[in-house]
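User: Hi! I'm a student and our assignment asks us to look at how structure tokens line up with a sequence. Could you show me two examples?

Assistant: Happy to help. In each example below, the sequence comes first and the structure tokens follow. Example one:
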Amino acid sequence: MEWKGRRQSTNVEDARGRKMVAGGASLGLLLRFVGQMFGTKGILVLLGLGVVGWTLGIIDPMALMGGGQVREVQYEASPAEQEQMAFVKVVLADTEDVWTQEFSRIGHEYRAPELVVYRGQYPTGCGTGDARMGPFYCPADRKIYIDLGFYQALEQEFQAPGDFAQAYVIAHEVGHHIQTLLGISQQVAKMRGRPEYNQYSVRLELQADFLAGVWTNHNQRYLDRGDIEEAMRAANQIGDDTIQKRTQGRVVPHAFTHGTSEQRMRWFQRGLQSGDIRDGDTFEIPYEDL
């Protein structure tokens, strides 16, 4: 991917020099305080609001069970990591350019997400972010979180090297931001707790892959030979069936949350071929046909 010397996004927060330490109010202390102030009815109201917030994806209960504080620590990135940081900023800038134009085309205003680069663990609007989770999008604060160490894992553990494989990961998370802007994520969050919730999660993830493909379609002038193959390889390696085979030796379809390798590659390819955000409604298709 041709990226050096190009515009870098200013919507990137560098949190690599910050470390999360124990602290914050626990859920137990919060309940005790409310109980003392408002009695049992106050506790019931608080719990009710918590359930509603969790159902809508606004509150992560884990975020209330210990919390965390952040303090500044000494940190000096290597030249290689600094170059990787510059790459992330360029990719995010590309998503801003493409989606601003595409949203305008369908009569919407695009509001770009912030991308937070952290190390280890970091507090988010969706609870504690952990590098072991990989990159993720938090709809509560509308931010993308990534530990750059994931890219090493993507290359070594998932056998998906290449800069465009890394770009695909960011584009997928931006896809989740788009789903939040359009109200799709909120509708899926309402299904939480129902038996069919996993199917809705798969639909949401495959649509994010489609949106990553749409972004790629509008960004092809910057691609090098082999870039599409890198993205397809990454999509293949992070499919539910492939990960389950690697980690537990068997495939459990009812536990899928992101879709199979074949599905993820196919929906990315569909977005790449279409280039139109309106062609990716994964919720109108029978689940078995996704």
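Example two works the same way, sequence first and then tokens:
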Amino acid sequence: MEDPKAFLIEEYKDYIYSIANQFYGIDKEDLFQAGAEGLLESFASYDDTSEVKFTTYAYKNVYGHMYALISKTNDFKISKDTWKLYRNIMTTYQQMAQLNGKIPSMSDIAKKLNIDDYLLNATIVACQKASSLEEEIYDNKSYIDNIASNEKVNIEDKIFLEETMDSLTPLEKQVINYRYYHDMTQQEIAQKLGLSQVKVSRCESKGLAKMRVYAKECA
């Protein structure tokens, strides 16, 4: 007779992998095993008469076990989609605060974005942990080096960031804009502009170097 636990894990295999794919830099099978433990824990406590779907109920445990695993290492990275969600959360937070004149709750933001509360909280925790690790490794970097996370800087810095862009050639500015403001990979930019990836990489490096020089001259 087939092991019921193995059957359950097999049935929800795609679900577990879909959560594991939020991260990279960590072995997917290790993440899967951690998520499977969370799934089994959820199944043991799930009330099948509840109106809450099992996948919704299980998310907290599945993600939680994976996060417990990645928290033990400094090598994990966050997927592009998760970073996009994080930036969307931060943008929504700012917009709701300005519109309503008060700080919105996490539940309010989750409802606005139509996502689960735990997904919202877990995304914030994971991305802030990743940002913290980057700061520890690159503690001498200026906000210019963290241009992709420009929502973290204040309005004066954002204006200054735009001014540093004016020091670039049109192509460099275009590459930087696509790369960091639209979250495109170098390969995606190369295809869009009809260039080689090497050319795009050089434009990005030169552009960031010019922006750093401009920032130092204005400091």
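Here is something you could point out in your write-up. The two ends are 72 Å apart (CA to CA).
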